[in-house]
Design brief:
Structural class: alpha/beta
Radius of gyration: 20 Å
Oligomer: single chain
Largest sheet: 7 strands, parallel
Strand order of the largest sheet: 3-2-1-4-5-6-9
Helix content: 40-55%
Strand content: 15-25%
Shape: globular
Length: about 325
């Protein structure tokens, strides 16, 4: 069923609006004519409030997402029709993951329930289908609480984002080799742009069939490997492909060494988890997992939107080139 015109009975609250997806969601809601309220953390050390052009037209509320009482007061005053949570742990460390991906979402859900909100849309991640990391377990724990809530819910699990596949644009443009894990064919994904992901999330508010659903979503196919990402970048940059392989075992060695100090050191615990996260993304595809075969399926991974990774890379390279000319 296609998207219908948005006509919420009250404001739509967006948490995580300072992140790239949250900003795109807020901008989309404003364009749709929705009363939009963005939750932002209060600046530290008396710094001026954050100003993001993408949030123009939205109401900004500063609140700490772990302040249960403050959320209750704010949601009670707003009486939101819906809540969209785009928050996520920035580090992925165990402590931060449970604080953000679980506890903060639980506090928002409690406030949403108490204020009479009708719909809670959660931005999750497709990688939770094979949980091995702290942030994945934290996300799944909240997904379960959300599913048990009396509020209608939708859980969106995107594949990779364009931003997460863009870290080596500068290397390629500078003539450096593109880094691969193994042979570069260990994983595949169907990346989705911020704008297309935001449109899918906002559409969840007006498409009845998406309520009560867990929705994996990728961008336009076909699925692309790490090596193919590099080849695409070199092609667009007009350079001969150069690759350098990083052994996956490096992550195992790093996490093994750091894990020896996890019991006594938060620093070691976080760093060991970062190494495990790096290995996960180096070896696991961001595609739908077939429960019958236990294999990732590009064919079964839904596609949405029209933005392509090729166009994204081309735009980034053009920006870099323009910046060099201006400098």
């Amino acid at each position: 069923m296609g998207a219908q015109t948005l006509q919420p009975s009250g404001p739509v609250v967006v948490a995580g609006a300072s992140g790239t997806i949250g900003r795109a969601v807020a901008a989309r809601l404003v364009r749709e004519g929705c009363e939009t309220v963005c939750l932002l953390r209060a600046p530290a050390n008396g710094a001026p409030p954050i100003s993001l052009p993408e949030l123009a037209g939205a109401r900004i509320e500063q609140v700490e997402l772990d302040d249960h009482d403050a959320l209750m007061r704010l949601f009670g005053a707003l009486r939101p029709a819906a809540v969209i949570s785009c928050i996520a742990s920035r580090s992925g460390g165990p402590r931060d993951a449970w604080k953000v991906d679980h506890d903060a979402n639980c506090a928002m859900l409690a406030a949403a329930e108490a204020s009479g909100a009708k719909h809670f849309v959660l931005l999750s991640a497709i990688c939770v289908q094979k949980p091995r990391l702290a942030f994945q377990h934290a996300k799944l724990a909240f997904e379960a609480k959300l599913a048990a809530s009396p509020i209608a819910h939708t859980i969106v699990r995107p594949t990779a984002f364009f931003k997460s596949l863009s870290g080596q644009v500068g290397r390629v443009e500078a003539g450096k080799p593109f880094l691969l894990f193994g042979d570069g064919e260990l994983t595949r994904c169907k990346p989705i742009s911020d704008a297309d992901c935001a449109r899918f999330i906002v559409d969840c508010l007006s498409v009845p069939d998406r309520k009560g659903q867990i929705l994996p979503i990728g961008g336009p196919g076909p699925a692309i490997s790490l090596r193919e990402q590099g080849e695409l970048l070199f092609e667009l940059a007009g350079r001969e492909p150069r690759f350098k392989s990083v052994p996956v075992a490096l992550f195992d060695w790093t996490s093994a060494v750091l894990s020896m100090g996890e019991r006594w050191s938060q620093w070691c615990s976080d760093k060991a988890e970062y190494a495990r996260i790096a290995k996960y993304y180096a070896t696991e595809s961001m595609l739908l997992l077939d429960p019958d075969t236990g294999e990732y399926s590009a064919q079964a991974t839904p596609e949405f939107g029209s933005d392509t990774l090729r166009d994204h890379y081309a735009a980034l390279l053009a920006e870099h080139s323009s910046a060099k000319v201006c400098a």
